[in-house]
Amino acid sequence: MKKWHDLHFRTAPTRHLNLIQVERLTCSSKRRKQPPLWLVWVGFELCPLADVWSQYARRFGVDHWYRFAKQRLHWTLPNLSTPGQCERWSDLMPLMTWQLWLARDLVSQQHLPWATPQTNLTPGRVAQSIFAHESEDWLSNTTTENPRKVSWLAIGSKKKQEKHLSHCQEAVFSP
């Protein structure tokens, strides 16, 4: 491990940072050499190097939460117009995560066939189970008298649909 003290950004000379280079001593793959890892510590006081690595290891939980918030909770989906709206929407993300975390005892697990069952559900598995529960309710509300129709030709004009159907019939019924 190497470190450089009291560096600064070119465009912000008053912003001090420390640069740390971490190199692997043993490589798990014999064919390729692992590149060094460069870490930046912004601020005046740098904690001991042994603690820097433990702080760096904490990033995995944070990275996974950001991915969960963006993909499952649709953090980046709405097109909000003011910074205040964006801040309020961003403030809701941890609250939704906590609600999913606290609801883990209230749902029964609905795992995918290839997924292994878990005893302690994550917020992602809780959201998946809630969605499966809601879809079961949706399906049970349909009746045979008024079934919901799903059209695979929903896009396009009537002429295009008729033309497509006639081509399909020709392909199927041709001698």
Describe this structure in words.
This protein has 175 residues and is α+β, with helices and mostly antiparallel strands. Helix content is 43%, strand content 11%. It is built from 5 helices and 3 strands. The protein has helices at residues 49-57, 59-71, 83-102, 123-140, 158-173, and strands spanning 2-8, 16-22, 37-42. The protein has a 3-stranded antiparallel β-sheet, with no helix packed on it. Helix 3 crosses helix 4 (123-140). The N and C termini lie far apart (76 Å).
Specify the structural class: alpha+beta
Strand order of the largest sheet: 1-2-3
Average predicted local confidence, pLDDT: 75
Query: Biggest sheet, in brief?
Result: 3 strands, antiparallel
Q: Tell me the series of helices and strands, N- to C-terminal.
A: EEEHHHHH
Instruction: Tell me the span between the first and last alpha carbons.
Output: 76 Å
The number of helical segments is 5
The count of strands amounts to 3
**What shape does the CA trace take?**
extended
Radius of gyration using CA atoms only: 27 Å
Low-confidence stretches: 168-175
Helix content: 40-55%
Beta-strand fraction estimate: 5-15%
